[in-house]
Amino acid sequence: MFSSKMLFAPKRTYTQLDYAMHMPKAYVERVKRIIPRKIYDNRFGAPPVIRYHLLPEDYIPSTEGRPWEHQVFTKIIQKESRYHSKLLNAKYHDIKYNTIKKISDEEWTIFPGDTVQIMVGKHKGKSGVVLKVLREANAVFVDGLHTKLVTEMENLERYGLKKMFKWAESALDASKEEVMLVDPQEKEPCTAKWVLNEAKTEWIRVSDKSGVEIPLPNQAKVTYEYISAKDYIEVEGKDTTSDIALKRTYTPKLCLVEQEIMDELGIKEDRKPKQTFWY
């Protein structure tokens, strides 16, 4: 009874809204370099020894961008090389544990395209539109606000050129309320929460101050693959249609994969495996 209620309950689709929602998890972990490099197993009952590219507890989310972006990925590779050089030289490696307490996806309320107000810094009290969000670092970037001067291109002096600077948005920590949503009715900063609508069919954002719904902007649904899911065009020959992908073609059998392959190829095995013992 409980499982049937959970099955038909409204899904929290907002938890998956992210620009990188279609990025494969295996690819993201490989770029973060937190996958095992070598696993030494079959140690006569002892637990396996795992050697990582970079220790998972040593990975710290960057507020400069996503892990596959060039600048962030370069720093991850440099950290990985330092880690392995210390292992080879039998030196102590100081693990910098991640101290960022990530806001859960169920409680996250700020998305790209939202109107927010900055609560700290030189632009305190100003309102703007969210440009980018990095959930794993609780980072929010507001278009044209909370900026800092950074070099646009490095090592230009060696070519006889002057340094080039530009204004770049800095990260604001949503967990510390450095940036807050603007109430559409009161026009003041507020916090929000997710509640079910009157029909109990969909989760909506509601302001804690006035109780007014804060609708999701269209920019929150933009991903690497499309601007709008309705306008996505499948490429013939490259994209597998949903009808084919969801078609059930596998029939489970009470046998091993090897035995199933042998049956399909017509291979018969009459030999009996020898009895084995574990000491």
Tell me about this structure.
The chain has 279 residues and is α+β, with helices and mostly antiparallel strands. The protein folds into 2 domains: 1-99, no CATH class; 102-240, SH3 type barrels, CATH 2.30.30.30. Helices cover 17% and strands 19% of the residues. It has 5 helices and 12 strands. It has helices spanning 2-8, 25-32, 70-88, 242-245, 257-265, and strands spanning 36-40, 49-52, 115-118, 127-134, 139-142, 147-151, 165-169, 172-173, 179-182, 189-190, 192-196, 203-207. A 6-stranded antiparallel beta sheet has the order 8-5-4-3-9-10, with no helix packed on it. The protein has a two-stranded antiparallel ribbon with strand order 1-2. The chain has a two-stranded antiparallel sheet with strand order 6-7.
List the helices and strands and how they pair.
Elements: H1 2-8, H2 25-32, E1 36-40, E2 49-52, H3 70-88, E3 115-118, E4 127-134, E5 139-142, E6 147-151, E7 165-169, E8 172-173, E9 179-182, E10 189-190, E11 192-196, E12 203-207, H4 242-245, H5 257-265
Antiparallel strand pairs: 1-2, 3-4, 3-9, 4-5, 5-8, 6-7, 9-10, 11-12
Organism: Panagrolaimus sp. PS1159
Protein name: Large ribosomal subunit protein uL24m
**Which residues form runs of ≥5 with pLDDT under 50?**
none
Strand order, biggest sheet? 8-5-4-3-9-10
Write the element-wise H/E pattern from the N-terminal end onward. HHEEHEEEEEEEEEEHH
In terms of quaternary structure, what is this?
single chain
Structural category is alpha+beta
CATH fold node name of the largest domain = SH3 type barrels
Spatial separation of the terminal alpha carbons: 47 Å
Shape: extended
Protein name: Large ribosomal subunit protein uL24m
